[in-house]
Amino acid sequence: MDTTSSIWLPPQSSTIAGGVDSLFDFILWTSVVFFAIVAVASIYFVIRYRRHGDIARTTPFTENLGLEITWTVIPTILLMCIFVWGFKGFLRYHIIPANATEVKVTAQRWFWSFSYADGPTTIGELVVPVNKPIKLLMSSQDVIHSFYVPNFRVKMDVLPNRYTLTWFEAVHVGEYQIYCAEFCGKGHSEMWGKVKVLPEEDFKKWLEAGSGPGEGETLKDYGARMYVKNACITCHSVDGSKVVGPTFKGLFGRHEVLSTGETIVADENYLRESMLTPTAKVVAGYDPVMPTFQGILKNVDIDGLIAYIKSLEK
Ligand code: CUA
Questions:
Q1: pLDDT (tens digit per residue) in 285-309
Q2: How confident is the prediction for the chain on average, in pLDDT?
Q3: Of all atoms in ligand 1, which is nearest to the CA of residue 107?
Q4: Mean pLDDT score, 88-100
Q5: Rounded to 5 degrees, what are φ and ψ at 55?
Q6: Residue with CA at minimum distance from ligand 1 atom 1
Q7: Is 182 in the pocket of ligand 1 (CB under 6 A)?
Q8: DSSP letter (8 states) at residue 150
Q9: What is the pLDDT at residue 128?
Q10: Full DSSP string of 267-292
Q11: What φ, ψ does residue 290 adopt, rounded to 5°?
Q12: Closest ligand 1 atom, CA of 188?
């Protein structure tokens, strides 16, 4: 079993946990050492230089260059170590491996749901394979929540009207607690979930057995249905041809030049914004004629359409 837990922290169950803990321990013990030095010196000075009888004047004191350089240089070196170490960890935590499997996470008062592009939607249970990077694309239906799995050392805010991303790679088969780490109302303290880490074979079986937004439908296929149902098909082709609006083929991740001359990347947030506020960022060469789908598309419809657009590679 896991021997990586400590008095401070739960077992390290993801690839990044060890690095997070090493830095935490370094900062903790550095602080303990300096606290001890300052506390002992303070107590010593209080006793050594306490008032004796009538002598009220301190001895004249001029600068001590050696001492001043020492207490400037040593903390500077330590802080630079913490900065470089922390920045490396920050990059490792924020650069999502390109081969990661994506799961859509939806937070709402007061439960979590998880949708798989080629699988079911589950409530309160995130099922993942062991030793595989998992990318979480997260949004909230209502207020701000925060997705927190202490064993993985992963915590990320989950916001309404915007997607946030995080990732992890579980290193042991098992079950891990998900908490909500942002106060979100009455049920906040019970907004729990479980990450269930399975061997890859079992995960594949589980995925095949699941059902999508419809009966047995994937998020992507649901998106394809929404594409027709909401008449996106009238103005956006999926075969690369130019109709009234840009084609969806190869759209995701594409660099688009806007009518303002600015260049953007067509990512999840851009696609979402383009459905809800179509005139905010119009691609150069097209007229701003698309109606808003605010109030027409539900969040799950938008998730489906994005999954569908992502599947339409060049
Ligand atoms: Cu959701 Cu606190």
A1: 888 888 777 766 778 888 999 999 9
A2: 88
A3: 1
A4: 92
A5: -75, 105
A6: 145
A7: yes
A8: G
A9: 95
A10: -HHHHHHHHHSTTSSPBTTS-S-PPP
A11: -75, 135
A12: 2
Rounded to 5°, angle at Cα 222 from 216 and 228: 140
* Token pair for 22: 């090493």
The band of 213, judged by pLDDT with boundaries at 50, 70 and 90, is: low
Span from the CA of 112 to the centroid of ligand 1 (angstroms): 9
Q: By the 8 A CB rule, do 281 and 264 touch?
A: yes
What's the whole-number mean pLDDT along residues 262-271? 92
Q: Is 180 in the pocket of ligand 1 (CB under 6 A)?
A: yes
Q: What is the pLDDT of residue 208?
A: 66
Q: How far apart are CA 1 and CA 87, in angstroms?
A: 31
- Do 144 and 115 form a contact (C-beta atoms < 8 A)? no
Distance of CA 161 from the midpoint of ligand 1 (Å)? 16
* pTM strictly above 0.90: no
Q: DSSP readout, 194-252?
A: EEEEE-HHHHHHHHHH---SSTT--HHHHHHHHHHHTTGGGT--SSS--SSS--STT-T
For residue 137 the two structure tokens come to: 């694309």
List the Cα angle 220/224/225 in 5-degree steps: 120
Does 184 sit in the ligand 1 pocket, CB within 6 Å? yes
